[in-house]
């Protein structure tokens, strides 16, 4: 049986099958103040200094950034997150990445095989497609952060 690929949250990132292969997080930019938001904002600008009235347009975020902080997740997440209590627990690495052009920090898991020992504050990383969970019907896709130059890693 073929599983359908589904994003964990629709509209937050490009499909990992895009023709040019350029996987990107998607935010929104306010036309009045140029503030960029991720997660995306579709109703109104969240910038308290915005003069108001600006249209919000989808904008791809920078594909690379610098590690701002990182840690390891050593606990099973609580509901509503998917966590099979029968499956062995595997710790994961969380990475906070500064996107300088957008003036923001974006949190996400590290790519498989990347642990805290592989990261350093200030290191350049890139966003890559990832899989959060598989069930009988779907492959739930998400984004991950990977150090630049480690494309061949698991």
TrEMBL record:
The highest taxon in the source lineage is Bacteria
Which InterPro entries does the record match to this protein?
A: ChsH2_Znr, NA-bd_OB-fold
**Can you give the residue ranges of the ChsH2 rubredoxin-like zinc ribbon domain?**
22-56
Protein name according to UniProt: Benzoylsuccinyl-CoA thiolase
| Origin species | Streptomyces hydrogenans
Task: Give the classification, highest ranks.
Answer: Bacteria, Bacillati, Actinomycetota, Actinomycetes, Kitasatosporales
């Amino acid at each position: 049986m073929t599983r359908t690929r589904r994003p964990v949250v629709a509209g937050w990132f490009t499909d990992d099958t895009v023709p040019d292969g350029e996987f990107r997080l998607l935010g929104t930019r306010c036309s009045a103040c140029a503030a960029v938001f991720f997660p995306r904002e579709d109703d109104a600008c969240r910038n308290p200094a915005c003069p108001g009235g600006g249209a919000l347009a989808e904008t791809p975020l920078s594909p690379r950034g610098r590690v701002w902080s990182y840690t390891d997740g050593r606990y099973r997440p609580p509901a509503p997150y998917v966590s099979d209590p029968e499956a062995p627990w595997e710790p994961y690495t969380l990475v906070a990445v500064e996107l300088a052009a957008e003036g923001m920090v974006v949190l996400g898991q590290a790519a498989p095989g990347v642990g805290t020992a592989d990261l350093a504050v200030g290191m350049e990383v890139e966003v890559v497609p990832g899989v959060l969970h598989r069930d009988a019907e779907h492959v739930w896709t998400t984004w991950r952060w990977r150090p630049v130059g480690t494309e061949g890693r698991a």
